[in-house]
Design a protein that fits this description.
8-stranded mixed beta sheet, about 15% strand
Length: about 675
């Protein structure tokens, strides 16, 4: 697209040359487009943003059967023109085209919609007559009122009242009486052309007239009820509700109305009673026989009802909910109630109870893991939906194993490692650490070495695991450590090493560090100007930041790796803390046995303890921690945020960056 940019600059500089270029156009064939007909078009992009594109793409939007559908259209180049063809549906009334470049339809690299005017064409019936709904479709298209976000970039939306009103008058003349299928689209457009009070009265009269005509199907009644709510017309809404409940008592609309009636604005025991009444009136298993788009209703009901049962200690009712529900809902109930309490830092969780509940729920999850209940969340992409389900199952198994280990049920814990996904089997350092403990407690020594080696290969190892692997290595080499580092390096696959190097290179920066002087744990001042000949790693952390604390084992691995290297410095700067932050930082690190060089961030002009961190915000772009930087010659050369969960991966990332910087000339 560089040629494209140069071309645009030249046009700005040479307006007379630019005027000689033909405007981008679309030529339709035949000139009169008819329903159920195969049509073609020629696209001439000269003078537009796609003039120099070597592979533009086209998307067609067709209004047919009272709704819009978008379909990609293949383009072929012929004599500097791009051609495409499309089979019009039998009910089509309007077709529009959009041309773009790039693979991301939501954020294309370039787009051509005729400078916002849009490329569109009416479609007539087989006898050549304009079809009811045509002008309504055109008005919706031009006003950006299609209700479909994918059409937003086909044309620049205009709320020009005269334009909309003119098209609606044409539609009224053409249709005589607006069909029910088009009524609500018509009202949405009409609202743009009238004062609010006049429109409300007009809409009410029109809806009442239509309701009196009878032969009311559920879809129309549902739309009418929602439209009355939109108008804030309570009496109109209530009247339509009564018809729905009388004529369609078991419909999806009646179900949704009941869901709102029984649960909206209710909490605690009131919600529990309402949810139970709803499930009696509209059982989940009945919905499953013919599921519709109201999956979210049952997801919401079960999720909140389960939380209420759990908090009230109604364990039998809590477990009873898992009998019929899908994996997605069961997973969320487990995550919110079991996992959340297992991970609670309050220390008040009843781990024995959590484990007993988990033992009964995990089999349900494993049984339904492949039910594709996440399908709609991933655009009906079955592969991504299953990948997500597998990842969720790995997380639930982590909780279950952690609870089993807490209760010293090591034999049971060992049984569940087999259910981990391929990525989860060795990809979680904390899970690997628990696996090591389980094998050690069960004295399954033969399985320990393969576990540790596979964990190193996955770059998911804790300091304790490295210590155990060194112990195993020495036992096999007459107590000698010679060759151990080479042995460890050889366990890491080359593709993993390449991935890490690429990741590190993507985080390299070049940002001047504002010199500072900060107090260390012993009350002495450390000046950054004294680091002139060193490569220095800085970890910004806080006692309130859980990911920061979780990353400490990885930082300890790094500290130990470079403990005897005078050219490498590693400092932990506590920042954004309150109260007696110095004592809190020092006491926590000492109590956990970490051997860090601690520094306390200084107080800034705003009174916050964030002076050094704040000076780097232009680089960071945000104030989240943990944040690691590496400084060389007074310049920040590396910056990364967050924590992956693996101590060895963090250590490996920072050591890779250190060695890249050390190797620079």
């Amino acid at each position: 697209m560089k040629r494209h940019f140069f071309r645009k600059c030249m046009l700005l500089l040479c307006p007379f040359f630019g005027q000689q270029l033909a405007a981008q156009t679309v030529t339709w064939q035949p000139e009169i487009l008819k329903q159920n007909q195969k049509i073609s078009f020629q696209y001439q992009p000269k003078g537009g943003d796609l003039e120099f594109s070597d592979g533009p793409k086209a998307l067609a939007a067709v209004y047919s059967g009272s709704k819009w559908n978008t379909v990609p259209v293949q383009l072929a180049k012929k004599n500097e023109m791009w051609t495409g063809s499309y089979q019009l549906p039998e009910n089509a009334v309007l077709i529009a085209l959009k041309f773009y470049q790039g693979d991301d339809l939501q954020n294309p690299e370039a787009i051509d919609n005729q400078n916002g005017k849009g490329y569109y064409h009416h479609v007539v019936d087989t006898k050549g007559k304009i079809v009811p709904g045509t002008y309504l479709a055109e008005a919706s298209f031009k006003a950006g009122a299609t209700g479909d976000w994918t059409l937003n970039s086909f044309v620049s939306a205009s709320k020009d009242q005269k334009m909309i009103d003119s098209l609606l008058q044409k539609e009224e003349k053409l249709s005589k009486r607006i069909p029910r299928t088009l009524l609500f689209n018509y009202l949405d457009l009409k609202q743009l052309t009238m004062p609010a009070s006049e429109f409300s009265a007009m809409a009410d009269n029109l809806l009442k007239s239509e309701l009196k005509n009878g032969n009311l199907n559920e879809q129309f009644l549902a739309q009418a009820q929602r439209y009355y709510e939109k108008l804030k017309n309570e009496s109109g809404s209530a009247a339509v509700k009564s018809v729905i409940l009388k004529d369609y008592p078991k419909s999806s609309t009646a179900r949704f109305l009941a869901f709102r009636k029984y649960t909206e604005g209710k909490y605690g025991k009131d919600f529990e009673a309402g949810a139970e009444d709803f499930l009696k009136a509209f059982p989940y298993m009945e919905w499953k026989k013919s599921p519709d788009s109201q999956e979210f209703v049952y997801y919401t009901i079960y999720r909140n009802l389960a939380t209420q049962y759990f908090e009230d200690g109604e364990n039998e009712k809590f477990l009873g909910l898992f009998k019929d529900i899908d994996f997605k809902t069961a997973n969320e109930i487990y995550r919110w109630n079991i996992t959340r309490n297992q991970m609670s830092m309050s220390g008040k969780a009843d781990y024995k109870l959590l484990y007993e509940l988990s033992k009964k729920i995990i089999p349900y999850l494993l049984e339904r893991q492949r039910d594709q209940s996440y399908l709609t969340d991933f655009g009906r992409d079955a592969v991504k939906a299953q990948e997500n389900a597998d990842k969720q199952m790995d997380n639930r198994l982590f909780t279950h194993v952690a609870l089993a280990v807490n209760q010293k049920d090591f034999a049971a814990a060992k049984n569940f490692f087999q259910y981990l996904s391929k990525e989860g089997t060795y990809g979680n350092a904390d899970m690997n650490a628990m696996h090591l403990r389980v094998l050690s407690e069960l004295k399954d020594d033969q399985a320990i070495k393969p576990l540790l080696e596979n964990s190193v290969a996955a770059n998911a190892v804790t300091p304790e695991m490295f210590a155990k692997l060194k112990e195993v290595y020495k036992s096999e080499h007459k107590g000698e450590e010679k060759g151990y580092e080479q042995y460890i390096a050889g366990l890491m696959p080359s593709n993993k090493k390449n991935e890490m190097r690429a990741h590190v290179m993507s985080n390299m920066v070049n940002y001047p560090l504002t010199p500072f002087s900060l107090e260390n744990a012993d009350g002495k001042m450390v000046n950054s100007k004294d680091w002139a000949d060193k490569i220095v790693v800085i970890d910004f952390w806080a006692t309130w930041c859980r990911p920061c604390i979780e990353a400490f084992p990885g930082m300890q691995l790094l500290v130990d790796q470079y403990a005897k290297d005078p050219q490498i410095g590693i400092y932990m700067i506590g920042t954004m803390q309150t109260g007696d932050y110095k004592a809190k930082s020092v006491n926590y690190v000492k109590s956990q046995g970490f051997r860090f060089n601690l520094l306390h961030d200084a107080i800034s002009s705003t009174g916050e303890q964030d002076q050094v961190f704040k000076s780097l915000l232009p680089l960071f772009k945000q104030s989240s921690i943990p944040r690691k930087i590496i400084v060389k010659n007074g310049i920040v050369r590396y910056s990364s945020e967050g924590y992956s969960g693996s101590p060895s991966q963090l250590s490996n990332e920072l050591s890779t960056a250190i060695e890249i910087l050390r190797a620079e000339k």
